[in-house]
Specification:
With 221 residues, the protein is α+β, with helices and mostly antiparallel strands. It has one domain: 3-Layer(aba) Sandwich (Glutaredoxin), CATH 3.40.30.10. It has helices at 2-24, 57-65, 67-72, 92-108, 120-134, 143-154, 158-164, 168-177, 181-187, 208-219; strands at residues 34-36, 47-52, 79-84, 191-194, 198-200. The protein has a 5-stranded mixed β-sheet. α4 (92-108) runs antiparallel to α5 and α5 packs across α6. The longest helix is centred in the first third of the chain and has 23 residues, at 2-24. The relative contact order is 0.19.
């Protein structure tokens, strides 16, 4: 009788072990859901970086429907950091400089970069998306015309912008964003990178919840 009890006990123990192993096993696969970058983005531990461009239609779609809700669910897990590509789009360089100015202002004011009502960065970014993709604006008047769209969206004068851009932190941040170029080369933009090392394959994202789970798993690596 004792032998029978031990057999049943061992069977139960093995069943519990197999269940635990199943739950602990990763639901995501390298090469399918993500790839490890050959050249990681430096100083990016515990971050979710989104490499984007104002002239990228897919970046616009993700920023309208995905980025904000996902980042909200990752509070305390990763820090969200946008990296604008200055190499993409006719006005990529001035866009990066303006975005850097606004990111620094949001950070100084303690405003999350996904806050639709308060973030200067998000207001300008969405204004450029709407102008370029919805209104087909191409700013034929040149760089000043381009900058006006973003400055008007956040209520900043050109004089204030010209003063703000002299801050060396603006150029430093714009330089930091250049590290996102290698990630963008793998599959284009938007490029979501976790911990500076793991590039998510956006084509295989099936749901908002799945993306959150994937980011959480990669953040723990």
């Amino acid at each position: 009788m004792q032998s029978s009890f031990m057999k049943n006990f061992l069977k139960s123990l093995l069943s519990v072990s197999f269940i635990a192993m199943a739950f602990s096993a990763s639901a995501f696969t390298e090469g399918v859901d993500y790839v490890t970058l050959e050249k990681p983005i430096p100083n990016a531990d515990k971050t979710l970086i989104k490499v984007f461009s104002y002239d990228c239609p897919f970046c616009y779609k993700y920023d309208k429907r995905v980025t904000g809700p996902v980042v909200q669910k990752l509070e305390g897990v990763v820090q969200f950091k946008p990296y604008h590509l200055e190499t993409k789009g006719k006005y990529g360089l001035p866009a990066s400089r303006l975005f850097a100015v606004l990111v620094l202002k949001d950070q100084a004011n303690g405003v999350p970069l996904i806050d639709e009502d308060k973030s200067l960065f998000k207001k300008a970014k969405m204004a450029y998306y709407a102008a370029y993709h919805d209104k087909k604006e191409r700013w034929d008047g040149g760089e000043n015309d381009f900058l006006k769209t973003g400055l008007d969206a956040v209520g900043m004068s050109r004089a204030d912008y010209d003063a703000a851009i002299k801050d060396p932190r603006v150029e430093a941040l714009a330089q930091e964003w250049k590290a996102g170029y290698d990630a963008a080369k793998v599959q284009g933009v938007p490029a979501y990178v976790v911990n500076g090392k793991y590039l998510i394959y956006t084509k295989n994202i099936r749901s908002e919840g799945g993306l959150v789970d994937l980011i959480k798993e990669l953040a723990g690596k």
